[in-house]
Structure formats: C-alpha cells, structure tokens
Amino acid sequence: MATPRFFCCAPLAARTTIELPADLAHHAIRVLRLKPDTAITLFDGRGGEYPARLLVDGKKAYAEIGDHAAIEAELPGNITLVQGMAGGDKMDWIIEKAAELGAIRLVPVAARKSVLQLSGDRLAKRLVHWRRIAQAASEQCGRNRIMLVAEPMPLQACVAQISGAGQAALFCDPAGRQTLAQALAQSPGDLTLLVGPEGGWSTEEQALVKENGLTPVRFGRRVLRTETAGLALIAAVTALRGWE
C-alpha cells in the first residue's frame, strides 16, 4: 500500500511534532481510518516533502515529522491552461487532470458561449471547490506543489495579462494554419494554452486573440470536446518537448 500523502496548509519543519489541521485530521482518522503510528507523507506546497508518523488522540491528530526530502515531480517548464468554463462536472475533471499532468496554473475564463456562468457567492464557493480538487490531485499524483486555480476572468482581461507578460501563448483553433509541433518549434520555454468552452470561441473572441498576437494552432483532424482538448494539448506538449 502506498504511503498516504497529505497537503498541510501550515508551514512544516523537520524534526518537530505538530497538531494537524482539523479537516486533515478528520480525513486521516475518520475517512481513511488510519491507525496510530501509520507512516504518512506531508507537504506544504513550498517544495519537497516530509516523512511523518501519525499520532492520534481522540478526534485530534498529530504528526511526528522527519527530515525534509527534496523530492519534486514538476515539469521542467511551466504550462498554464486557460480554460473556457464548462458546465456540469467537466471543470472538476479538467482541473483534476490538468494538475495530474503537471500544469502549474489554470485560469477559468467566462467565455461568451460558456454554459457555466458564476458570480457572487456561487463563484466564491465554486473556486474553493476547484482549489480543493487541485490539492487532492497533487496529493494523489505525487506533486509537492499545488496547481494554482485562478479566479475566473473575462477573456479580454486574460489576453491582456498574457500579452503584457510577453509569454508564448497558443490558441486552440481547428482552423489554425500551424500544427502544435510547428508552433512549439517557435515557442521555447514557458507556455500558455487557450481552450474554448463547449460551443467554442465566438467570432469576436477569436478576433480578439489574433489581434493580440496569440498563435492559433490546430490539433489533429478531429474536433475535441472542451474537457478533452486542453488535457490532450498538455500531454502532447510534454511529449513533444521530452518533459517528464
């Protein structure tokens, strides 16, 4: 059985004993039913991880922390996925798998054709939910850093942010002239990928992206669903660049 891994929101230090946060303690001893003295692994998102021993006192749990292990499972370069917000549980799936595939950041975009439209309390609650999914995905897949799920923003603001940063950005477009491989040959280093919602980008959104110098790329002869396209692109980028 693999050693259970947990993200701890409090900073960790070697050779200390700490009380685990209530939600982490509940998950460890009530949900997973871990016994006292169980070996666990903790990480705080600052890099590396710590072997630890679980201590239980009623509903409270503690961790006796060992030496820091400088272990990372990050990609050699940074990939950001800009995702047109999708309805149902599709965003949950996209966030979970993007984290597993190694994306460093996911930006939900409120596109014109997005089925999902959020504001106010619904937006705040959904963002907390999405960030928990990213955390759980890191715990499961062995990453010691958490993929950032940014607050949803309009496409115009997102494109302005990308253009201002001067970073390479590829816009998924079935009618794009360049293939992914061709575009990557001209775009070394960190990368942002833009994927539309269920109905795709509107004509105005496509014009906005192209006017701001983002590169339209096609990805095969088939039109992929929104919950497939971004994940397939991340996997293809890492393969074409030889990243692990």
Descriptive notes:
It is a single chain. The protein is of the alpha/beta class. Helix content is 35%, strand content 23%. It has 7 helices and 13 strands. It has helices at 22-31, 90-101, 120-141, 155-165, 180-185, 203-211, 226-241; strands spanning 5-7, 17-19, 39-43, 50-57, 60-65, 79-84, 105-110, 148-149, 153-154, 168-172, 178-179, 191-195, 215-218. The strands form 2 sheets. Strands 6, 7, 8, 9, 10, 11, 12 and 13 form an 8-stranded parallel sheet that branches. Strands 1-3-4-5-2 form a 5-stranded mixed sheet.
Layout of secondary structure:
Layout: E1 5-7, E2 17-19, H1 22-31, E3 39-43, E4 50-57, E5 60-65, E6 79-84, H2 90-101, E7 105-110, H3 120-141, E8 148-149, E9 153-154, H4 155-165, E10 168-172, E11 178-179, H5 180-185, E12 191-195, H6 203-211, E13 215-218, H7 226-241
Parallel strand pairs: 1-3, 6-7, 6-12, 7-8, 7-9, 10-12, 10-13, 11-13
Antiparallel strand pairs: 2-5, 3-4, 4-5
Our measurement of the CA-to-CA distance between the termini, rounded to an integer number of angstroms, reads 24 Å
What is the global morphology?
elongated
- Strand tally, please? 13
CA radius of gyration is: 20 Å
Nearest-integer average pLDDT = 92
- Percent helix, as a range, is 25-40%
Strand content: 15-25%
Mind summarizing the main beta sheet? 8 strands, parallel
Structural class based on helices, strands and sheet pairing: alpha/beta
Number of helices: 7
- Report low-confidence residues grouped into runs of 5 or more: none
Could you give the order of the helices and strands?
EEHEEEEHEHEEHEEHEHEH
